[in-house]
Fold this sequence. Notes:
The protein is an alpha+beta fold. It is built from 8 helices and 8 strands; from the N terminus they run αααααββααββββαββ. It has a 3-stranded antiparallel sheet with strand order 3-5-6. It starts with a helix and ends with a strand. Mean pLDDT is about 75; it is low at about 1-40 and about 50-60.
Amino acid sequence: xxxxxxxxxxxxxxxxxxxxxxxxxxxxxxxxxxxxxxxxxxxxxxxxxxxxxxxxxxxxxxxxxxxxxxxxxxxxxxxxxxxxxxxxxxxxxxxxxxxxxxxxxxxxxxxxxxxxxxxxxxxxxxxxxxxxxxxxxxxxxxxxxxxxxxxxxxxxxxxxxxxxxxxxxxxxxxxxxxxxxxxxxxxxxxxxxxxxxxxxxxxxxx
Length: 206
């Protein structure tokens, strides 16, 4: 297996961690923002904040989290199109123990959010792996997974198609020294607060 094949396989955990890390940093960011706004405020700053809030709201409403299939398809499409904010808005970290669930929103996914640069870089690597030949500006992503019967669904890559090509075959075409039986890619989607998000990515080669 060559270096590229190993690199493609090794970035999976980093990507999810980078995006999920945004949610983990949001509490501190929000506290700092609240503290700053309470100490100094002006009509111009208030107007700017209102515009930012409206923009974040509009962007959040543009993503489709109504089903697991649409969340996964939207996330894959956003990665391929190089739209990390949209991809982030479709990701979440499920509740664990006493920790509540954390979902991607305008605060955690915006251009100025903590760790955004790392997320951009990591998702950029996935963009190369997920893009079929020939590439298109507006890829059509479809998920043929059976509808969810609970609050969690795991979608194998062979159930995801991009412009008619199976995602596992696309990833394989970008790797050398790797056979079909060595490739294991699954996208997990979970229902959180009534909406579906991408909550994990298993990306194994070898």
